[in-house]
Structures are given as C-alpha cells and as structure tokens.
C-alpha cells in the first residue's frame, strides 16, 4: 500500500467516524510535515500551559540528632535528578516508550498517525502512540485530579482528552529541555507494587537505587509502566510472568535499536525476574519508635499551627515531601526502653508506659511502652498509643492515683501554707457537710455518708511534708477541704492536666486522690512545669519542618509562667523527701537532686510514679488494658517477678529511677532552687509537734505505698452512681 492510498483510506475511515475529516484529507496533497501543520491549524493545536502541582512526596521524621525514625506518604515516591538514574534505565524507557524522543517535537507525528489509524479502524482508543512528553502530561493531569470524576476524566477514552494532552505537551516542550522532561516523567510514572517514580520502584522491586539498576532490572521497570496493574509483581505468579514477558519485549526492542549486543540480550533474558518486594516503610507501624511517631502524626494532623484545615494538614503530611525534625532524644529513648524491659515483659498482661519531658521547653524526649505496637493479639501487641492521650492516638488512660496529691500540695503553698503546717487527721475522713466541697460550677458535691480511709490506719498530726511523704489520704482530703476543690482543680489545669479520653475532668471530692484517667505525657509534662519553677510549656515534638524546596520553619516552645517560682521551689523541696523519708525510700534516689510522687489507685488497680529533676521529668504508669478495675495488680507475675500487690514504688518507681540514671548520664546535675525559709519554713497558725507513725521508720522490705484512693463503693457514691 503506497503512502497516498493509505492516507486516503485513513481519511475515509475518519469520514465514516465523523471526525477529523478535513484535517486528514489534506495530507494526500503534501507530505507528512504538511499534514501535521494543516491538522494542527484545523484542530487549533496551540501550546497550552500545564499546571504542574508538586508531586506527592514522602515525609520523613527525624529525631533530635537528625536520624530518620519514620515516614508518611500517600504515594511512596523519592524524586531524583536525571544523573541519579542509571544510563541503561534511561535507554530502556526511551527504547520501549518513545525511541525517537530526542528527535521529534512535542508530538511524534509518525507514532500519532499510526495510533490514529489503529483507533479509527477499531472504533475506539486502541493504541496510544503517545510520546514521553504526552505521557508525562497525562500523569500530571491524573495526579492533579482530586475527585473520582476528575480522575475518570483524566483517563477517559476520548479525542477531546487526547487533543488537550497534545496542546499541553506542546507547552511542556516549549518550557523544558528533553532531559528535564525525561527526568520529570521518570519521577512521576507509576511502576506498580505501590511504587511511584523510578527511585521508589528500584528500591521496591530490586532493593537498589535507580542509579544502580542493571540491564535486566532497567528493562523490567521500563516494561512495567505500560500497564502497571496488569504486571504488578506483588499480586502473584501470573502478574510476575506477564512482567517477565514485558521485560523481554523491552530487551528485544533495545537489541533491535542497536542499544545492546547479542551477548547482552541473551545474558539479560536468561536472568530470573528477581523481584524482591522490598517493604516500603511507611506509617508508624514501621517506625523504630511507633508511639512517638504516632504522637508526631497526630500533632501535625490536629494542630492548626501546621495548616488551617485537617484536609490541608493531611495533604501536607502525606504528600508534602517534608522533613520534620523532632525532640526525640535517642539516648533517653533507649534509657526508657531498657528500664521498662527490665521490669515488665512484652508478654505480660499489664502494660507499662513512660514519657520523658524537658522542663522549661515541654519537649517530649522519649515515649516508650512494654509492649510492641501492632494489632497481633497472639504477640500481645498494643493497637493504640498507651503513652499518650486519645487526641494523639491513645486510649482512655489509667487513674493517676496519688500523683494528683501534688496539685493539692501546690494549692496549699500558693495560699500561704508553710511546709510544716498541717492538721490532725484520723484513719478515716468524712466530709462535715454537703457544701464541704464545691466543684467549679459552685455545686455542692460532697458526700458526708462516705468515708475515705488510709491503708491500715495512719492518723495523727500530718504536715505538708509528712502528709506528702506518707501519701496520707485523710490528710489530703482535709487539705483539699481547706484550700478548696475548685482551686485545686484550677492548679491542675494550669499545669496542663486534662483527661486522657478528652472528656471534662471529674470534679468530685476525691479529685486529690487521682480518680481521673491520665496518660504519661500529660502527667510528666505537669511535673516538668514544677521542675521549671512554675513555667508551664505545652507538650512539644516538632522543632523544625523543611519543605521539599529546602525552606525551613522553626518552632519554639509555647510557655507561660503559671505560678510563683518560689511556690514550685517549695513543692520540689517537699517532694524531694519522697525519696529519703517517704514512699520511695526503699527504691532510692538517682545520685542527683530529684523530686516526685508515687501513685496507687484503690486495691492496686493501677500504679504510677511521676518525678523530675531541673533537667528532665518523667511519668510511668502500669495497668491492665483489658480493664484495670477488673484485672487489678494483685497476686500477679510481672517481668518474671511475683507481686502480692503492685504499688507506685514497686514497678513504676524503679522504672523511673533506672531510666533517669541512664538518660542523665553525662549530664551535669542541676540543683533545685532552695526553699525560701522566710516564706515557707517553720510553722504558720496550724503547726503542732509531728507525730510520726512508728511504721514509717525502718526498712519494711519491699517498698509499699499507703493506699491512695477510697473504695469502689466510695467512688460510685461520689459519682452519683449509688
């Protein structure tokens, strides 16, 4: 068939189809070049500017030292420059997709005519005939589509779409060099197996970088772009077989074009497919520090600092190609992980969790738990962030017990009490009347019929110091009565205290006994504010974000002074005694100034320790996530050790101690500011000789803490359930 008759037949087919008739009739008079010019004129094929939104790029999270600890992506892609791609890869993709790429303009006339003829005679879009530039345009339009309707339009089999692609391709060719277009195409193309771009594909398919691809590997990837879903090697044997066939087609084409020798062809075709299926690490499940990673992700998605809407923040995180530097200190993280592992096993039903926070900045330095993150019940994994609140991927938390007594202590000091001021209390406390305790709405919520008790009695005169060291329930109920429930709640809130589940704090008379469910991050950060002399800082994990273009934005701590520094100093002075004269004396200190408070809930449902130095604060919790009230910490084996009952000083205290010893090793010890004796020393109007409980002296073996919370019946009464 001669050229003229072929074009006339093409024109006839076009006429029958009712499209492009005038444009295609003209070539019978002139050559191929004239045909294209006339066609372009008839169809108004003028260059159009293509909007090229940034490609979806993976976001990488770094620790404070700059090492990667996690990544997020909507599409896994790592854009690379053309010189970072092997020459054989470039040769392979051009050979199979557009062998005249460097010779023709925006449109390969020869290929387009061949495709038009095939499509017109088949009655549809049977052959693309697209140049690499046109394919790039198509990928940009598809990647830019947001709705399903837009995506369908970008892929529809119509001449209108094809003509628009041609117009955009002309604009792209005017804007970029051929090398630039090839680079863009190789970075945007989808290769299958969730790999977008040649770098991700090289890693996913073969575990190498794009610059290290050999002939067989390059031919495989070049063959995959035609129909990546049909040849996706991750989908099974048939798909891999089709991919192998496509690879050999590419190799044959490269040989046909003289790009490889006979020997190279045979050697490459003799190789197996070699697909490795290298995991593309993404999400927090693949992170070395999953709980910290979850916190960072939730913080980005929920904090308006990182975008006006959640949709905007989600796109930023999953598509933005960001590098996010965080506050995580690998040394401190390792210290927390080792300490927890020493005391609690991953296979144990109870789970221990710990957070470390820097006083004065709110920087979260570590987040660790005894169980690995995941959804395998067989491996006893945790499916949520047990270290954080619900807003950061956590759950309902655990009741914080006597760690809340510190907020009542602070309130007493704020209201003018001295360290040796106190009250005579009995073994039980009962509110004098219904108006004894008022919540912050001014409502009477006391229950005179309910008695709060201590463990095995322990009444007598107690001061702010001795009452705190012994964690005496009746003393703190009386202290809360004196200073006011609402004032105590306000003190706690000023230090960032809020329920882990996001619900309002329960404002009942036993607030000081820690009836509210908490998470280690929130408690650690509250105690960090005391260590920072009353300066509260919002919990912080992100210090810098660098966008895909290298533009960096730094984030500073958000802090405010929430109490008189001397009040915080006085509280630290008292809480130091917990290690030497109180519930932690059997555990011991850490060889530097430290302060803290144990916490154990009723009948050992959960146990806590929260403590701080001027340099670092931490909180440790332990409880059974199956239900702490049902599965209490009595007669249990944890970490290979049997416990008749678990108290704050039994497991959480030692975990905190071991963590701090390692985390602060090599850090110069900082002293607390001394107590202002003129303001807080001595006695005020409520001073009497101290009556120490004889059981408070001497070593009683395994450290125990006095019972911190009233009975279940009492809690139910306080909550209005009985």
TrEMBL record:
This protein's record includes keyword Hydrolase: yes
SUPFAM superfamilies: beta-lactamase/transpeptidase-like, Lysozyme-like
Annotated Penicillin-binding protein transpeptidase domain residues: 356-626
Annotated InterPro entries: Beta-lactam/transpept-like (IPR012338), Glyco_trans_51 (IPR001264), Glycosyltr_51/Transpeptidase (IPR050396), Lysozyme-like_dom_sf (IPR023346), PBP_transglycosylase (IPR036950), PCN-bd_Tpept (IPR001460)
Keywords (A to Z) from UniProt: Carboxypeptidase, Glycosyltransferase, Hydrolase, Multifunctional enzyme, Protease, Transferase
A Pfam family reported for this protein in Swiss-Prot or TrEMBL: Transgly
Catalytic activity: [GlcNAc-(1->4)-Mur2Ac(oyl-L-Ala-gamma-D-Glu-L-Lys-D-Ala-D-Ala)](n)-di-trans,octa-cis-undecaprenyl diphosphate + beta-D-GlcNAc-(1->4)-Mur2Ac(oyl-L-Ala-gamma-D-Glu-L-Lys-D-Ala-D-Ala)-di-trans,octa-cis-undecaprenyl diphosphate = [GlcNAc-(1->4)-Mur2Ac(oyl-L-Ala-gamma-D-Glu-L-Lys-D-Ala-D-Ala)](n+1)-di-trans,octa-cis-undecaprenyl diphosphate + di-trans,octa-cis-undecaprenyl diphosphate + H(+); Preferential cleavage: (Ac)2-L-Lys-D-Ala-|-D-Ala. Also transpeptidation of peptidyl-alanyl moieties that are N-acyl substituents of D-alanine
Compositionally biased intervals (Basic and acidic residues): 692-716
Region entry Disordered, spans: 683-722
Stretches assigned to the Glycosyl transferase family domain: 66-255
PANTHER family: BINDING PROTEIN TRANSPEPTIDASE, PUTATIVE-RELATED (PTHR32282), PEPTIDOGLYCAN GLYCOSYLTRANSFERASE (PTHR32282:SF33)
Protein name: Transglycosylase domain-containing protein
Organism of derivation: Nonomuraea corallina
Lineage of producing organism: Bacteria, Bacillati, Actinomycetota, Actinomycetes, Streptosporangiales
